[in-house]
Each structure stands twice: as C-alpha cells, then as structure tokens.
Amino acid sequence: MKLNPFNKKIGIALGGGAAKGLAHVGVLKAVEENKIKVSCISGTSVGAIIASYYAFGKELKDIEVFSEKLRAKDVFKLTLNKKGFLSTDSVRKMLHNDIGDVKIEQARIPLAICTTDIRTGESVIFKQGSLLDAVCASVAVPGIFLPVEVQGRLLVDGGISNNLPVKVLEQMGAGITIAVDLNGVNRYPEVHNFIDIIGNAIDIAIDLRTKEQLQLADIKISLDLGDYSRLDNSHQKDMLFDVGYEVATKQISRLFWYRRLSLFYYVKKALKLLTPIKTPQIILDLKKKIT
C-alpha cells in the first residue's frame, strides 16, 4: 500500500517483447494526447530501449522510426563466442548515434533500466551509470546474445527476473503506477525456426512472474499481441502501433478516476487492515447449514 495517497506523480513501466515494442510507442502517444505528465519511467529489454528514448526527450515520431528498425536483420550481429552467438553491438551503435554515450542520471525524466545477473539470478536495476551498457545488458537474451559485464557483474535480459519493473517506480517517487505488458495473454506466435522456439519458451517461463508484477500497478495495460512476431513486424507496424494506442486510450480513462478515488481506496484498505470486519454470526450459522 502506498504511504502517501496524495501523491499524484505518475510512473510508467514498459515490459519486454522484442519487435512487439512498437506497441509501447502507441501507448505513449495515448499518454501524451491525454496530457499526462510522466514523472519517471522504467523498462526491460525492448521496453528499456523505448523508455530510454522517451526519457531523453526524443519525439514520439522519432521513436516510432527507430522502433520500426527493431528487426532481426538490423539488431542481430553474429559473433564467435562460447557465451553467445549474437552481440548487442548494433543496439549500442543505434543508441550512441541517437542519444549519445550518456549517463542514465542525465535523462530529462528519471529512468530505470532492468537487467539480470546471470550468476546470481538477481534483478539489477540501473538508475545511474552508462545508458549504453545498461540497455545492451537488458536486451541480451541469455544463450543467444553475449552477456554484458558491468561493474564486475555478468548481466543479461532483465525479463528473466523483472519483466515489468513496477516496484522501482514507487522508489523513484511515483504515486500512481502504469504497467504496459506486451504479453498480456497466454497465446504465443507460431514457430518457424529455433529463434521462435527459444522466444516462446522464454516468454512462457517469465509470464507467471510478469502477472505478479502487473498486479503491483495501479493501471494495467495488457496487450494481446499473440499474432505479432518478436523478430519483425515491419509489414504490420501500423496495426501494432494502433493496438497499443487503442488499449491505452481506454485504460487511461481509469487513471482520472483513480486520481479522484485513490484517497478513498487508501482509507478503505487502511481501515480493513487496522480493524478487520467480523463476519456476523447469522451468516456463519447459515454457511454451516448449507455445507
């Protein structure tokens, strides 16, 4: 339970989903059209990329152009290494060209990037330090991409440990949290190659934990993107963008009610915790007769 029901600062968590990430841009467009000020933002994997662009002040039209490049042939670079056969060099280069070799703490909007320590299994969240290192680690699917070593830790895809980094938003000062889940249904794309199989397996493995993380959010935006590829959606990019935009537009209407009723819900929950309501004896007797 949040300690300050009067805190109306809004934080957004963007989840992982590879080439499905263009839907995040549709969500952010709905946020901007409704004149919602984002006080902090967090992201995992492709969500970390989109969050970084947004936090560093890039226009949505520019982020959309970048997102359209999120295709296997653009971001996959073969490498000969026993820890992985693809590198994140292309992602690093794109970020360097578009944003620069910057520190996370330099972002216009406070930013958090989620990664996973492959040695300990811990979720490692960066709120400062090299943006390029943190994002490249966050997108490094283990067994496929080379891990990224940062400060002595060997880091990989944040989705394994924290696919929807909602909790960190509260630590960053958010009073109302919004979570965007790109895998909102238990339905996965058809498999055509070993990358698809590995991708589905990873999605299935992290979905249960993602649902738990989603429950921490005040406003939940779960997207049904089962018909879209994690490798290349360039042929249906407009549809993917529209799904994020339309679902977010509907859910954002709840945000205005939440702002008004958050104090009511806070007091109700506090009273329930402090003074549990006893079930009347007549109801207990009736229940015994029925059973």
Task: Give your account of this protein's structure.
This protein has helices at residues 22-33, 46-55, 60-67, 72-75, 89-98, 131-138, 159-162, 167-171, 194-214, 237-274, 281-290; strands at 10-14, 38-44, 77-78, 86-87, 111-117, 123-126, 148-150, 153-157, 176-181, 219-222. With 291 residues, the chain is α/β, with parallel strands linked by helices. The mean pLDDT is 84.
SSE layout and pairings?
Elements: E1 10-14, H1 22-33, E2 38-44, H2 46-55, H3 60-67, H4 72-75, E3 77-78, E4 86-87, H5 89-98, E5 111-117, E6 123-126, H6 131-138, E7 148-150, E8 153-157, H7 159-162, H8 167-171, E9 176-181, H9 194-214, E10 219-222, H10 237-274, H11 281-290
Parallel strand pairs: 1-2, 1-9, 2-5, 9-10
Antiparallel strand pairs: 3-4, 5-6, 5-8, 7-8
Helix pairs in contact: 1-3, 1-10, 5-6
Feature tags:
291 residues; eight-stranded mixed sheet; two-stranded antiparallel sheet; 11 helices
Describe, in short, the structure shown.
With 291 residues, this protein is α/β, with parallel strands linked by helices.
Helix content: 40-55%
Give the terminus-to-terminus CA distance. Answer: 35 Å
Largest sheet: 8 strands, mixed
Proportion of strand residues: 15-25%
Tell me the radius of gyration.
Answer: 20 Å
Report the order of strands and helices.
EHEHHHEEHEEHEEHHEHEHH
Mean pLDDT: 84
Structural category: alpha/beta
Give the strand tally.
10
Overall shape: globular
Which stretches of 5+ consecutive residues score pLDDT under 50? none
Helical segment tally?
A: 11
